[in-house]
Amino acid sequence: MAIWEYIHGFAGIDRPESITFYDHQDQALYRDVALKIIGQHGWELVSVIMSQDPETRESRYEYFFKRNREDGYPAGFGRAQGN
To answer: Across all residues in the chain, what is the average pLDDT?
Structure first.
């Protein structure tokens, strides 16, 4: 049985391939992560929706990803983050 982990991030309309991920306190965890990098680390795109930034009221894309925790990928993107 798979153990799934989930992450979601946001991208501007002008740069949909560059995603920024935030923690629960709205601090950026990873900035400008390319879509191709996300896939190389086991993340599978589940959904993309258009949303609106509550502060700036600008439209943006919101991406939702999942991956199987048992596949052995390191935490994060690009390099291991110590987890």
So the answer is: 85
Q: Which two tokens stand for residue 15?
A: 């740069």
Residue 65 near residue 6, CB atoms below 8 Å = yes
Note the pTM of the prediction, 2 decimals.
0.79
**pLDDT means over runs of 10, the chain (83 residues):** 88 94 81 89 94 94 92 63 37
What is the C-alpha to C-alpha distance for residues 20 and 34, in angstroms, rounded to an integer? 9
3-class SS letters over the chain = CCCEEEEEEEEECCCCCEEEEECCCCCEEEEEEEHHHHHHCCCEEEEEEEEECCCCCCEEEEEEEEEEHHHCCCCCCCCCCCC
The answer to whether residues 64 and 8 touch, using CB atoms and an 8 Å cutoff, is yes
